[in-house]
Specification:
- This protein is α+β, with helices and mostly antiparallel strands.
- It is about 50% helix and about 10% strand.
- The chain is built from four helices and three strands.
- The chain has helices at about 5-15, 30-35, 35-45, 55-70; strands at about 70-75, 75-80, 85-90.
Length: about 90
């Protein structure tokens, strides 16, 4: 899945009260938490009265993905280019 699909799936699980990881797959959990994207998403949904248009929702998700697509594979670990934190590669 692409980063955009992963972010959409993450928020969809959150709305359905399903279990999620610390961040969407492929996104640095450290940066995700520091940038408080969960809170930004809930503000966005509240501002759209719980029913955002598809175009507005897609633009929000693309903006999030663009800002967080900075994880690269380096020596069997993932490294965030933004915060330089190493994350173990899941097998």
């Amino acid at each position: 899945m692409s980063i955009i699909e992963n972010v959409k799936a993450y928020f969809s699980k959150k709305l359905n009260k399903e279990e999620t990881g610390l961040a969407p797959e492929g996104v640095c959990p450290n940066c995700w938490g520091k940038q408080e994207w969960d809170g930004e998403y809930y503000k966005f949904i509240k501002g759209e009265n719980g029913n955002p248009s598809t175009e507005t929702y897609d633009n929000f998700i693309k903006d999030v993905a663009r800002k967080l697509d900075k994880i690269t594979l380096k020596n069997n670990a993932y490294v965030c280019e933004t915060c330089q934190v190493n994350h173990n590669k899941a097998n």
